[in-house]
Amino acid sequence: MRMTKYKLYYFNLRARAEVARQLFALAGEPFEDIRVEFEDWFNTIKPMGDMPFDALPVLEVDGHKIAQSITIARFLARQFGFAGKSVYEQAVVDSIADQYSDFFPHVRPFLRTLLGFENHDLDTLLIEKVRPARDEFFGQMVKMLQASESGFLVGQTVTYADLLLAEHVSTFKQYDPHYVRDWPEIQDHWAKVRAIPNLSKWINDRPETIY
């Protein structure tokens, strides 16, 4: 039986491709992790027009390209069994991913400033933008966790929604050590997700990047 060939194109960052990489790790599925330099992207690859929507990440599956980070994560989660165990669970998992997409623009200026694409004071952004949005989003996630008996957001096993939340926490714990201090349920969830053996190995072995 021929194996599906996966290629994931992104920059040398965790950022918007990391959940996809973690899904490959959880599934034990081989893939080509193609990390593009910014200079190569802007000067060579993007002008060629071969990537959907002229943006990364892009997942190539047996030569067919899929764009948009959440769509890629959802596709891989369904391929590998991390999207929810029933149609209802899948819908709830997808709703959390959509809610994360609504939350992300509030933290995006902080991350773009880290990368040098915007020029803001990071402390000001953290206090005035990131933490207020975090509090609303974490409050919503705590309700999901309190309704769950497993310690995961939905159902009895890890889903890509858990990866989205845990990776967000990891990113901001780097720059705000007290980011989850007042959110014990979020801290416990983060630790539970990070303790999954395949995922823990990936995190320990992955390249060090700013975000």
TrEMBL record:
It comes from the Eukaryota. It catalyses: RX + glutathione = an S-substituted glutathione + a halide anion + H(+). InterPro entries: Glutathione-S-Trfase_C-like, Glutathione-S-Trfase_C_sf, Glutathione_S-Trfase, Glutathione_S-Trfase_N, GST_C, GST_superfamily, Thioredoxin-like_sf. Gene3D superfamilies: 1.20.1050.10, Glutaredoxin (3.40.30.10). It is an enzyme of class 2 (transferase). PANTHER family: GLUTATHIONE S-TRANSFERASE, GST C-TERMINAL DOMAIN-CONTAINING PROTEIN-RELATED. Pfam families: GST_C_3, GST_N. This is glutathione transferase. One of its GO terms (biological process) is glutathione metabolic process. One of its GO terms (cellular component) is cytoplasm. The lineage of its organism: Eukaryota, Metazoa, Ecdysozoa, Nematoda, Chromadorea.
